[in-house]
Amino acid sequence: MKGNIHVTSENIFPVIKKFLYSDHEIFLRELISNAVDATQKLKTLASVGDAKGDLGDLRVRVTIDKSKKTLTVSDHGVGMTSDEVDRYINQIAFSGAEEFVNKYKDKAEAIIGHFGLGFYSAFMVADKVEIFSLSYLPDAKAVHWSCSGETEFAMEDTVKAERGTDIVLHINDEFSQYLEDATVESLLKKYCKFLPVEIAFGMKKEWKDGKQVETGEENIINNVNPAWTRKPADLTEEDYKTFYHELYPTQMDEPLFHIHLNVDYPFHLTGILYFPRIKNNLDIHRNKIQLYCNQVFVTDEVENIVPEYLTLLHGVIDSPDIPLNVSRSYLQSDNNVKKISSHITKKVADKLADMYKNDREDFEHKWDDIKLFIQFGMLSDEKFYERAIGFALLKNLEGKYATLDDYRTQVKEAQTDKDGNLVLLYTQDADANYTYIERAREKGYDVLLMDGELDVHFMSMLEQKNEHLRFVRVDSDLIENLIRKEDKKDEPTLSTEQQEGLRKAVQNVLNDPNYYIEFQAAAADALPMFLTQNEFMRRMKEMSRHQQGMSFYGNMPDQYTLVVNTAHPLIQDLVAKMTSEEVEEVVEKKEPNTSGEPSTSGTSEPRETVTKTVYSLAGEDERLHQLLDIALLASGRLKGESLARFVNRSVSLL
Ligand code: ADP
Question: What is the pLDDT of residue 596?
């Protein structure tokens, strides 16, 4: 028989060719899915008594014949009669799987769903495709079909000893890589690693006398019972770990813990999600989740299926309810995908809440490794925030953990300022901030360690969500100013003129425009000069690293405030050494306009000469240098040549 392939709407071949340059390797997945489907169908038929006798060997085999340039996929499934080939293959708009699923609805979960192109994807890589098939039906005649990529096919009776189907692809010269063992094996490993029917490719090899030799055993690609398809009750911790390494053979780290997903209604979803250790660097952990559809690998790009922060997790999601042939952007608006995504979010939050509730100590132990994940989730998903705020932890410098609520209660008394704001002190580097931390402790304050990649964002979010809550880094101002207990008594110990004189002298020695000089009467036992760094500016700069549109802050140089402690005896001594002189200066007239009419220039003189006192500090360069270096040193900013000069100067001063 000869005929034309009937396509309902348009010719399928241009569509196939369109795929040609992108995902052509999926042909193998499609053909093997069909072979597995046919095998599962046969098992289903046998289980309800519709197929009689011993089913025999059910392995699917992939073989390559280099001389004939063919790749063959063989199964021992239901097979097809010539009528069926006509219906399912020739009339390609007609889906056999759909018809079968309708007939065996409740038994049909095992049938691999629709991938779209299906059988015809073979033409992406083959010039000619042949089908040899013998149906399981009693007295069936074997059929041979062939087609060379036009809409014309040939079909005839043939002889075939075994039940099932062979699909023979005559590989196009351009795609000769699909005749290479290594290429085909790696594709099989990618797509078929967990298919429910054994897939054999060649023979197992072993090392003998320094050479690889074939054994008599077939090389089976897949694990037909991957952990996620089994009942959690049947699995041990060890099984979950073994499966983790089966998924990621090159991954050395052990996962922290896992979640086994299993939903039947209103959608089907199974899977196992693993929590990896994430200390820093969000990116290297992404895109490890593998998406399967009835155990067939579909993709490891799940970013439109689960919320972004969940892409940090590892593991497997298997669902026949995720539409596979739609654009990625469409996926997000799909109702099933939305339900699946919120289900996973809920499961993840529940698991973490359970762990926190049931074994607080263990949870704290794991906190540093899951903190980044949880903060990412809270920052990007309001729902997750609401669940996680009950178990998200803050850690102080003593290594003690507390939820925000608990921590507030702990420090409320000491750290509430005169306006009723609760001020939480933190450091990002306990060594660098040592002197500041000591001063905070002397005051009875607690200091948090916020050295994580997302901590700055996290603190800003907590401030937004909690009125009267502020985070300030211990070195962002005088400790007295960080948590202000009473209104500042602004009693200047230096006159404006004295300050100007000292400022000039300091600027001269410092010679760096990124330091802003400020005069403040700190405690007499505080350093004579020290650095602070404005919380707002510093935080904006840090946040800009993760956020687009904020490069304005990112490009700004680091700016510091150099506080001159006017209460310190050394500073007071410097001031006492300053000399003053009266200087005459011509300035703009500040005369009040008594006439009530605009003064017209030219008619009156707008300038006048005044006498000013100007202070200056001479011959104290060494001491200023020393004081400035001590300020830099105390905040870990004295390095290299400056540090060496400081050391030498210190020795000579002694
Ligand atoms: P789909 O699998 O999405 O229905 P295909 O084009 O891949 O679309 O296959 C069409 C139909 O051809 C299948 O539904 C099935 O009935 C039949 N078929 C394909 N391959 C085989 C096979 N190896 N054994 C038995 N039937 C097959």
Answer: 52
Predicted model pTM: 0.78
Any idea which residue has 């007239």 for tokens? 589
Q: How far apart are CA 167 and CA 153, in angstroms?
A: 15
Q: Is 348 in the pocket of ligand 1 (CB under 6 A)?
A: no
Rounded to whole angstroms, the Cα distance separating 331 from 341 reads 11
Is residue 283 one of the residues assigned to a domain? yes
| Residue 191 near ligand 1, beta carbon < 6 Å | no
pLDDT at 13 over 60: no
Total tally of structural domains belonging to the chain: 4
Spacing, Cα 544 to ligand 1 middle (Å): 53
pLDDT tens by residue, 138-147: 999 999 999 8
The CB of 507 under 6 Å from ligand 1? The reply is no
236 & 265 share domain: yes
- Whose C-alpha lies nearest to ligand 1, atom 8? 118
Same domain flag for 500 and 631: yes
Q: What is residue 326's predicted lDDT score, i.e. its pLDDT?
A: 54
**So what's the pLDDT on residue 184?**
97
Does 254 share its domain with 134?
no
**C-beta of 114 in contact with ligand 1 (< 6 A):** yes
What are the start-end ranges of the H helices in 381-521? 382-388, 404-415, 434-442, 455-465, 479-482, 496-510
Ligand 1 atom at shortest distance from the alpha carbon of 77: 24
CATH number for the domain including 313? 3.30.230.80
Is the beta carbon of 95 within 6 A of some atom in ligand 1? Answer: yes
Domain that residue 250 falls in = 227-360
> Does residue 113's CB lie within 6 angstroms of at least one atom of ligand 1?
no
Whether the CB-CB separation of 77 and 37 falls below 8 Å is answered with yes
The reported pLDDT for the residue numbered 266 is 85
CA of 266 to the centre of ligand 1 (A): 28
Q: Are 19 and 121 in contact (CB under 8 A)?
A: yes
User: Is the C-beta atom of 75 inside 6 A of ligand 1?
Assistant: yes
* Section 211-222 average pLDDT: 92
Tell me the average pLDDT across 503-508: 91
> 107 pLDDT band (50/70/90 cuts)?
very low
Last residue of a domain, one of 360, 384, 417: 360
